[in-house]
């Protein structure tokens, strides 16, 4: 395969080897070879349909491209840095395969709109893969919630025990976060589903192309209406990195909680041995390395978003070489997100719930203090006064080294004559949880409805 640059007619000298290496993108954009060839085949068919090239030439080009695709798939293809990028590597190989007619493929297009097309095609596929992985993690969460639907768990604010909830309620919170992530990626897909080919370098072409033909061949929902916008737009990549960053925030928050829950101080869950590592020095250690890695990798994705925002923020229209910097960060973010989602689904599915420890946590704290106040409110005491009474009870218990459940009825009555024997049932964890039956709350009935909704939504979107 020739190393001669396909744009070299204007130049007397060859590009310095160091400059070739500096500006070449083939080491990372070669992953888009399939999209590049798919786009070229559609383009060649359009050129023939518009009688810009002959049907015979188009068929030769398409057949040659199919051969190249098979060679790359089988690993029997040499990518060359001197040819800079995936487009020129494929085109040079095509000319070598079918002769001078291969040079007709680039008629009525530029690498500017070609790389935009490749990236759009690639992102559409990758977004669908990410959405599939989101669904798998959501299913693991719903399965775990249903399996542990009766497990009572301490809900937290400020990392302080706040109110008893069902553990399923906590897991389902992440289901709904991921639902929003799924929907954000649907928006990314819709912006990637716009066809840029035909924009040329920036101003279109003098040849009678049919952009809608290519869009139909490649199943795009619409085409760019402005050629300058088509080659300059990277909004869909920014949206992808933004959606990916928000998703990684959710996974990082979940990672943080799992790491807490695995610690001896919490002992709420135990991860499967297959998802942990040990210590080279301390035999007793079982380290939650996977959630720690996910938490750490979140920063990589945030960095790629910041980098691309910074790259694009002052670029004049239309194409600038700076835009080559869009791909490495996007590709790394794609790999990171897909890995993180895959391992998280396994972690959730393999996680052992320590029900007794969770139960002990809600019995040995003051998370039922709000229920004491609500009890008094139901006896017609204004909430602010009820809150004050409950606060005094908590202070009394702390001084006496007791919990609210340990008080006698006489002790309760010292704080308010409204207390009756039914207070003891009112402050049981089961009662506290069941009473929170407002829509979206933590009662068994509300969790049942949330799981029902989740199952229906998963079925609709799978």
Describe this structure in words.
By secondary structure, the protein is mainly α. The chain folds into three domains: 8-107, Fumarase/aspartase (N-terminal domain) (Fumarase C, Chain B, domain 1, Orthogonal Bundle); 112-207 and 220-356, Fumarase C, Chain A, domain 2; 361-461, Ribonucleotide Reductase Protein R1, domain 1 (Orthogonal Bundle). It contains 19 helices and six strands. It has helices at 17-23, 26-29, 33-49, 55-74, 86-98, 111-147, 167-192, 211-217, 227-232, 235-262, 289-312, 326-350, 355-363, 369-378, 383-400, 409-415, 423-426, 429-435, 444-461, and strands spanning 152-157, 160-166, 194-195, 222-223, 269-270, 352-353. The strands form three sheets. It has a two-stranded antiparallel sheet with strand order 1-2. Helix 3 (33-49) packs across helix 6, helix 6 (111-147) runs antiparallel to helix 7 and helix 10 runs antiparallel to helix 11. The longest helix is centred in the first third of the chain and has 37 residues, at 111-147. The radius of gyration is 30 Å and the shape is elongated.
């Amino acid at each position: 395969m020739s190393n001669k640059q396909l744009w070299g007619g204007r130049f007397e000298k060859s590009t310095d080897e160091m400059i070739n290496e500096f500006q070449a993108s083939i080491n990372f954009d070669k992953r888009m070879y399939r999209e590049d060839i798919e786009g070229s085949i559609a383009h060649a068919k359009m050129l023939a349909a518009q009688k810009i090239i002959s049907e015979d030439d188009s068929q030769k080009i398409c057949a040659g491209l199919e051969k190249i695709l098979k060679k790359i798939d089988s690993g029997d293809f040499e990518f060359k840095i001197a040819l800079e990028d995936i487009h020129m590597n494929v085109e040079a190989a095509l000319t070598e395969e079918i002769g001078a007619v291969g040079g007709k493929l680039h008629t009525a297009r530029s690498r500017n709109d070609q790389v935009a097309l490749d990236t759009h095609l690639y992102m559409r596929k990758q977004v669908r893969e990410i959405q599939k992985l989101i669904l798998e993690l959501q299913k693991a969460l719903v399965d775990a919630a249903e399996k542990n639907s009766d497990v009572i768990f301490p809900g937290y604010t400020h990392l302080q025990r706040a109110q008893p909830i069902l553990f399923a309620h906590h897991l389902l919170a992440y289901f709904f976060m991921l639902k929003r992530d799924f929907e954000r990626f649907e928006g990314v897909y819709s912006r990637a589903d716009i066809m840029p080919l035909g924009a040329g370098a920036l101003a279109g072409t003098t040849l009678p192309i049919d952009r809608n033909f290519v869009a139909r061949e490649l199943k795009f929902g619409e085409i760019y209406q402005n050629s300058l916008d088509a080659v300059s737009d990277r909004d869909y990549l920014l949206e992808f990195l933004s959606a990916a960053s928000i998703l990684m925030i959710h996974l990082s928050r979940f990672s943080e909680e799992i790491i807490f829950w695995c610690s001896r101080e919490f002992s709420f869950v135990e991860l499967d041995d297959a998802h942990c590592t040990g210590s080279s020095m301390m035999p007793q250690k079982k380290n939650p390395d996977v959630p720690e890695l996910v938490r750490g990798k979140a920063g990589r994705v945030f960095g790629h978003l910041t980098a691309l925002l910074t790259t694009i923020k002052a670029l004049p229209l239309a194409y600038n070489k700076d835009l080559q910097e869009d791909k490495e960060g996007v590709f790394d973010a794609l790999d990171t997100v897909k890995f993180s989602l895959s391992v998280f689904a396994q972690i959730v599915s393999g996680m052992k719930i320590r029900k007794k420890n969770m139960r002990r946590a809600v019995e040995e704290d003051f998370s039922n203090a709000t229920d004491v106040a609500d009890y008094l409110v139901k006896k017609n005491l204004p909430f602010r006064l009820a809150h004050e009474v409950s606060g005094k009870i908590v202070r009394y218990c702390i001084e006496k080294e007791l919990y609210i459940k340990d008080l006698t009825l006489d002790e309760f009555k010292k704080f308010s004559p409204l207390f009756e024997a039914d207070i003891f049932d009112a402050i049981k964890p089961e009662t506290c949880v069941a009473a929170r039956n407002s829509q979206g709350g933590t009662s068994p009935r509300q969790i049942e409805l949330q799981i029902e909704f989740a199952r229906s939504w998963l079925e609709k979107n799978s």
